[in-house]
């Protein structure tokens, strides 16, 4: 029963997150927390799922024309080495749970309270991109990369609101940039984790298949159609419950 619940939660996380240009790591972490997985298993598993889903979503967003290389490259160049450093750091269990709990609350805030930073529609042309000054992009990318590596996420929940609220790109272009940024960070974080022994869950191959199906559906919604705000808010509630479990137990 627990395995079936986890599979359903992973599927929903992948579908809903890819619809807004994310790969779902915070959702996967929430699902694993709810079923009681150990922290040393959660971080590498979430990153692996992120890599597969972000790869799929990146291809779909780029093909749909929802991407800007000018905005992407300085952010990713600064983030990748810091994500590697964060991934290589072995955090105490309680500190890891606290960091992930805070990350889940931030993700829930994005999904529930900030609908204008999600791609329900664009008010700017797709090609209207205003990249930040290079020092700003490098500082932003490095900070997000470090947090992403430490928590086992791709950093998209931090990057996409910054892009939109700063006016650097349109909503759907933000989604495309964010998902490729997540892929780079997830790979770098995994490389950092690989410097130490990794404990893999036995059902990880099944999880990969499930999130790929969810990611295919979600990225289609995000790249070409509209995502569903009500479902996002439902996911936000799940994230809050998981965050409280991590923070209070």
TrEMBL record:
Could you give one GO CC term from the UniProt record?
plasma membrane
Q: Does the keyword Aminoacyl-tRNA synthetase apply?
A: no
| TM stretches of this protein | 41-59, 71-89, 95-113, 134-159, 171-193, 200-219, 231-248
- In what way does this protein cross or attach to the membrane? Multi-pass membrane protein
Q: Record's InterPro entries?
A: TM_pro_TauE-like (IPR002781), TSUP/Inactive_protease-like (IPR051598)
Superkingdom of origin: Bacteria
Q: Which UniProt keywords apply?
A: Cell membrane, Membrane, Transmembrane, Transmembrane helix
> Which family is this protein grouped under?
Belongs to the 4-toluene sulfonate uptake permease (TSUP) (TC 2.A.102) family.
**PANTHER family from the UniProt entry:** MEMBRANE TRANSPORTER PROTEIN MJ0441-RELATED, MEMBRANE TRANSPORTER PROTEIN-RELATED
Q: What is this protein called?
A: Probable membrane transporter protein
Supply the source organism for this entry. Botrimarina mediterranea
Its taxonomic placement starts with: Bacteria, Pseudomonadati, Planctomycetota, Planctomycetia, Pirellulales
